[in-house]
Amino acid sequence: MDAARTHQKVPVNKLERGACLGADGAVAHVTRCLRMISGRWKLPILFRLYADEMLRSSQLLRDMPDVSQKMLTQHLRALEADGLILRTDFGETPPRVEYRLTERGQALMPVLLAARQFAEDHERAVK
């Protein structure tokens, strides 16, 4: 490996290695974040809830016509379990349930918008 490419080396010192590869290192934190947003419909849900403060599941189904009710429900439950969205059930008949981003979900959006910008810039750079 070229000596100038030190950024690609894994630290050999145990203390340094833990900073990126340990159980509480950077890799573990980023991996946990990626798991929270992985899934075909999680990003569309997050971006829709970012665009509109509150949405009902019926509106999400209309906005994402290829998603099934089952998959939408699974992804909404996972996002809720991860603390990224809040589900409010009004206990009415017919059922009325609304979804919105939590503070943690709102805090994640600048990261996702930066990832979007990176992807656009990268696509232009490699053309």
Topology:
Elements: H1 14-21, H2 26-37, H3 42-51, E1 55-56, H4 57-63, H5 69-81, E2 85-89, E3 97-101, H6 103-126
Antiparallel strand pairs: 1-3, 2-3
Detailed description of the structure:
The protein has 127 residues and is mostly helical. It folds into two domains: 11-39, no CATH class; 41-126, Winged helix-like DNA-binding domain superfamily/Winged helix DNA-binding domain (Arc Repressor Mutant, subunit A). The protein has six helices and three strands, in the order H-H-H-E-H-H-E-E-H. The protein has helices spanning 14-21, 26-37, 42-51, 57-63, 69-81, 103-126; strands at residues 55-56, 85-89, 97-101. Strands 1-3-2 form a three-stranded antiparallel sheet. Strand 2 (85-89) and strand 3 form a beta hairpin.
Helix proportion range: 55-70%
Largest sheet: 3 strands, antiparallel
Output the strand order for the largest sheet.
Answer: 1-3-2
**Helix and strand pattern:** HHHEHHEEH
Number of helices: 6
The CATH H-level superfamily of the largest domain is Winged helix-like DNA-binding domain superfamily/Winged helix DNA-binding domain
> Overall 3D geometry?
globular
CATH-defined topology of the largest domain = Arc Repressor Mutant, subunit A
Label the CATH architecture of the largest domain.
Orthogonal Bundle
Coarse structural class? mainly alpha
GO molecular function, one term: DNA binding
Keywords: DNA-binding, Transcription, Transcription regulation
Domain HTH hxlR-type: 20-127
Protein name: Putative HTH-type transcriptional regulator YtcD
